[in-house]
Design brief:
30% helix, 244 residues, alpha+beta
Amino acid sequence: MIMVQRESRVAPSDRAAFEEQSREGMWPAFLHFGVPMIAYGTWGFGGPDDVVVTHHVYESLEHWTATRQGTGAYYTDPAMLEETKDLRAKYVDRDRLVQSSAARLIELDDSLSRPRAFSRRAGQQLAELPPTFGAGSVISERTLSIAAGKKAEFRRLTAEIVWPWLEEQGGRAIGLGNDLMGSSDEVTTWFAFSSLQEWYRFARPQSAHAPLHVAEAYTARANLVEAQRGRLLIIGTDWGAKAS
């Protein structure tokens, strides 16, 4: 799968309208295309504070191309246009609110990442509404440079021990992938927490009171990382299937 992370400069006075048009129009319309928007918000720590950020997941680059407004296959298919006509009317002015934008193209590890996208046709079941902890929750994004030959072990520790335990404590794994324009040594992870306080509590095994085998996995995984950088996305919408 492919994830497009887009940072858009929207004036503070226009952000409520931008979110509303997205929530009531664009994001539901994209479920008709088989595309979930899995995270919207602003960077709270570690990222630029003058943008809003969206994350859309696609089955492939061809699927992404089909969603391009005006020229993509979904905007030229009469049956799909009929399905989405009421929704499209709600975001007709959305692009006007964007002063500029920049995007990252990320290839997700399908076996480890949770979102699912598919090239939907008119009449098929819609893509599922993506889960969310709602406005004010956070997503931790970490980009890590992994020691040569150690990616498989990093992935194993993540998939088999660290993430399952964090999810048992109430967190929510989103995905692992690599920036297609970035270094081949790097991987990026996304993990959601219900609050900034919960993220802080689970940042280290000591503060999380993790059992020994989990603490050992945290340490072993950290030892595979040569360098890292992170940032926190503060979720700015209640759109989605609310998780408890």
